[in-house]
Amino acid sequence: MAKQLGISISTVSRALSDHPSISDATKKKVWKLAKELHYQPNHLAAGLRKGRSNLLGVIVPHIDGHFFTLVVKGIETVATKAGFNVLICQSNEDVDHERKNIETLLSAQVEGILVSLARTTRDFKHFEKVEKQGIPLVFFDRVLDGLNVSAVVLDDREGGYQATKHLIGQGCRRIAHFGGPLHLNIYKNRRLGYLDALHEHGLPVEENLIFHCDMTVDDGVRGMAKLLALPQRPDAVFSASDFSVVGALQELKRHQLRVPQDIALAGFSNETFTSLTEPMLTSVDQRCEQMGQSAVRLFLEMREERGQNFAPRRIVLPPDLLIRNSSVKG
Q1: What is the pLDDT of residues 90-109, one digit of tens each?
Q2: Which of 295, 317, 308 is nearest to 149 (CA)?
Q3: CA quadruple 138, 143, 148, 154: dihedral positive or negative?
Q4: Considering Cα of 143, then 147, then 149, then 151, what sign does the dihedral take?
Q5: How far apart are alpha carbons 159 and 42 in whole angstroms?
Q6: In angstroms, how far is CA 28 from the centroid of its own chain?
Q7: pLDDT, tens digit, for every residue of 46-65?
Q8: What backbone phi and psi angles, to 5 degrees, belong to 69?
Q9: What burial letters (b/e) apply to 129-161, b meaning 16+ CB within 10 Å?
């Protein structure tokens, strides 16, 4: 372009960046030729020259259902306003894939990483590289239990407590629980909330009513079939996931049992389908968009205070129990 226009390379560069030292006439000539040559500015390279990529990496287990979709929406809303572009990776609930996601984002020179752990993640080793490079790291929703890291989480224990207490308030006394892997904070705390409510109301903890699984629809079907085979079946189920509770609903319908009259159901996450089933499913809302927005704000705080011995911070959001027909026996 410089050769064709008979001007210096630096003049072309300044004209393309709308530098005030370049005349409007020169800028018009440069941009006219740029369009003819289909020139596309490389904002990433320009940002890296200034020590910034303006990229924020996000790793989610999956984008099935609405929870992570809405979290990402919240992330993008705040990130865009702050001048960041968002790179989204899926681990597909696989720790090996999660490791590859980390390498991909580091290669892209992201300025921060927000992550919700895969179900099979059991150690922090692959995140140590992120911390060693001084890149802000924020966890959301799923965190390994016991880690002192910056995170945005729901008060899952309170959510489990509210859901179970509601079922008890409906007259239920044999309340089963579908729980996920206990090394992840969300499933451990939802189970603790379930136990809190039982203890508070003097109800026994029956281990044969607790079914640990991967929280899929098929797991819900299998779990419900196992419960129905007991000499005395439960009168309610609190599931730590909406996916497994909808599987339970399918199995109950197959046995021509009524919900909630025979067995009441309550789930967790307020997935879109919970208001489309018959009956509609009671669930705990996780404030998805707020979680995503809070995660970005925490990243921005960490970035601002980088090098100042930033102490890990944890933001805990309150749950919201949405009571629907699947649990109301009155």
Answers
A1: 999 999 999 999 999 999 99
A2: 295
A3: positive
A4: positive
A5: 47
A6: 47
A7: 544 545 679 999 999 998 77
A8: -60, -45
A9: ebeeeebbbbbbbbbbeeeebbbbbbbbbbbbb
Give the DSSP letter of residue 277.
Answer: S
CA pair distance 211, 179, nearest whole angstrom: 6
* Rounded alpha-carbon distances, angstroms, from residue 17 to 36, 38, 41, 74: 18, 16, 9, 31
Tell me the C-alpha distance between 261 and 328, whole Å. Answer: 8
pLDDT attached to residue 270: 95
Helix (H, G, I), strand (E, B) or coil at 101: helix
Helix axes 24-36, 9-16, angle to 10 degrees: 90
pLDDT tens digit string along 192-214? 999 999 999 999 999 999 999 99
Q: How far apart are the two ends of the chain, measured CA to CA in Å?
A: 78
Strand order in the sheet with 112-115: 85-90, 55-60, 112-115, 137-140, 151-154, 314-317
